[in-house]
Structures are given as C-alpha cells and as structure tokens.
C-alpha cells in the first residue's frame, strides 16, 4: 500500500493519503487502519487529504468510513487538509460527513487532540 502512509505520533495515527490512491488501495487502507488503531491503542487518528485535488462519491464515502471506523474503535478522528474544491465537490455530490471532524491543518488537529486529552 504505497498510496497512503500511517505513522504513530503521540498516540495518534497520522494517515497521509497520496493523490494517486486507487479504489483497491483505499479498501486496503480501511483494513490496515482498523488493525493499527486497535494494535497501537491509538487515541486519535488524523487523515490528511491535502494531496487530493478531486474526489468522487467512492473516495468521499471511504473517507467518512475511515473516520467512522476509527471513532468506533475509540480514536477521536480528524480529516485535515481539505481543499476548497474538494469540500465543494463533496457538497455537490450530496455527501454529508456528520460524524467526521475536520481541522484546517495537522497542527490544529493535534492541538485539539492534546486539549481533549487534558494536556
């Protein structure tokens, strides 16, 4: 799975999605992320989509699913780096991500995760 990388920092899994990610890669990422959240005991997940210039309904749905999987495994989840064009496309496609938190950047997400942890 070269189209995404996952790194553990401060009990938070940072997931960087590359622009050339395929549908198969995304499905693999769901499996790998759920395993890593559980195995590492991650208290947070930050999904960075800043390299994605466009999204379709499949990618939008999977981003929501990634966040929901992490949330169900008790890891507070943020999607960061969303470009305005991506946000507009998600709205135009009727994609609502009510369970998905967003932050402007990795820094903002980490600040919010630290605050939630009490430090």
From TrEMBL:
Record InterPro entries: Bact_StressResp_Reg (IPR051932), STAS_dom (IPR002645), STAS_dom_sf (IPR036513)
SUPFAM superfamilies: SpoIIaa-like (SSF52091)
Domain of life: Bacteria
Domain STAS per the UniProt entry, residue ranges: 2-113
One Pfam family linked to the record: STAS
Name of the protein in question: STAS domain-containing protein
Organism annotation: Leisingera caerulea (Phaeobacter caeruleus)
Biological classification of the source: Bacteria, Pseudomonadati, Pseudomonadota, Alphaproteobacteria, Rhodobacterales
